[in-house]
Each structure stands twice: as C-alpha cells, then as structure tokens.
Amino acid sequence: MTTTPRDHLALVLDTDRLDDALAYAERMSPWFGIVKIGYELYASSGPEALEALRHKGFRVFADLKLHDIPTTVERGARAIGRRGVDFLNFHAAGGVAMLRAGVEGLRDGARDAGHAQPLALAVTVLTSDADIDALVPRMDWAVAASCDGVVCAGTDVALARERGLRTMVPGIRLRGGDAHDQVRVDTPGDAIARGADWLVVGRAVSAAADPERAADDITRAVAAALRSGPA
Questions:
Q1: What pLDDT sits at residue 122?
Q2: What is the mean pLDDT of the chain?
Q3: Of the residues 8, 36, 59, 65, which is catalytic?
C-alpha cells in the first residue's frame, strides 16, 4: 500500500481545551494524519476528545499509558477500544500478563463496537530517560503479550524490527533543534530511515516560530527517507 508522509506523522495535542485541539489539528491537517491525545486533553474532555478527532478524519492515538493490575487494564482498554481509537499504549513495565490483558481488552472492545482492530503499543523506556537497561526485556514482553508494536526512541527501532514489532517514535526534533526535556531524540529523516512506522511530533512544531514551516520541513525529511527506504 502506498503511503504519504502524512500517514506516518502523529500530531501531539497538548491542551486541555477540546476546541483548541480541534482547531490546531485542522490547521496542521495538511501534514498530519494522526493525532495523539494524552492525559491533559483526555482528563478535560474524556472520550469525547477521541470521538471528535476521529470524526474529523484523523487516526487517533490514545496516549494513556495504562498500567495497573491486569483486570483493571483489560476493562479500561475494552472501554477505550469501543471508542474507535486506532492506537492505545500500555506501560511495558506492567509485565506480560498486564500487557496481554490490555491487548485482549482493546481488541474485544473494538470488535464489540464494530470498529477495525486497533494497534496495541507497549511503552518501553521513555525518551526522557537515559537509562535503557529495561529496554530489551520490555520489548520481549511486548512480543510475548502479542502487542502490535512499541513506543520507543528512534535509536531503538532496530531492536523492535528484529522482533517484528512496529514502532511509534516520540522525541522527534529537526536537526539542531531544542531537545527540551528529551534525552534520546532523533530527526524525522533518520527515524524513518531506521524503519520507524510513525513519528510523534510535539514541540518541534508547536514551539516553532513558524509551525507550518516546521511541519513542512519534517514532511520533506520523511518523504526523502521514504523514497530511500529503511536501512
């Protein structure tokens, strides 16, 4: 299937106002086909945020990092799956049983509501954390739990690909850009060249003096890497 850079780019919606999130998503829609909804927006607008962005034509990544006992995670994931999200993540630190419960709940909820099967992603090590000792075990837990992929740094993509896992990569910055509070960053072109499936883009665009220009620069880098193919 032919894809465009827009299919690989997830826009971070860091706001507690749904109207602002919708306006920003629409403004950036020429470059982004996926939106990432995290704690802030979900806490203020709940499932309405997931549905509102989906109805605008975006694929929705619910960045809620579920982490609890397996039964609780399964029930929460089932409820979120019913909302028609395309991606949901879980903290891999919760272990194989918890991850597996989340995967099953997510898929069951989507099926019960008549939605396409969403992708379950395990969060390995945050890109703000320099300590990656837990990275390999957590990737292996994701495989054992039948997760579809992982959330990992661009520099970790090769390890995920070796295990047949797809990758959602945060910490994306244009070359020479401010890393902010991120430790393990990667450029959009390099991440795609490593084989990353999707890139999560936040402050590289939202904090830029000209967000549209930054989005265009990222898109051009992704397009060039896609033409060259993964390493």
A1: 98
A2: 95
A3: 65
Of 147, 152, 95, which Cα lies nearest the Cα of 119? 147
pLDDT tens-digit readout, 112-132 = 999 999 999 999 999 999 999
Contact 55, 83 (CB under 8 A): no
**Which pTM value belongs to this model?**
0.95
- Mark whether 36 is an active-site residue: no
Place of tokens 């690909």: 161
Q: What are the φ/ψ torsions at residue 112 (nearest 5 degrees)?
A: -60, -35
| Integer CA distances (angstroms), 101 to 37, 60, 68, 107, 151, in order | 22, 21, 11, 10, 18
| Tokens encoding 221 | 């880098």
pLDDT recorded at residue 184: 87
Q: How many residues does the chain have?
A: 231
Q: Tens digit of pLDDT for each residue in 177-186?
A: 676 777 789 9
DSSP string, the chain: ----HHHHEEEE---S-HHHHHHHHHHTTTT-SEEEE-HHHHHHHTHHHHHHHHHTT-EEEEEEEE-S-HHHHHHHHHHHHTTT-SEEEEEGGG-HHHHHHHHHHHHHHHHHTTPPPPEEEEE-S-TT----TTHHHHHHHHHHTT-SEEE--GGGHHHHHHTT-EEEE--B--TT---TT-SS-B-HHHHHHHT-SEEEESHHHHTSSSHHHHHHHHHHHHHHHHHH---
Q: pLDDT-based confidence at 231, cuts 50/70/90?
A: low
Contact indicator for 204, 174 with CB cutoff of 8 Å: yes
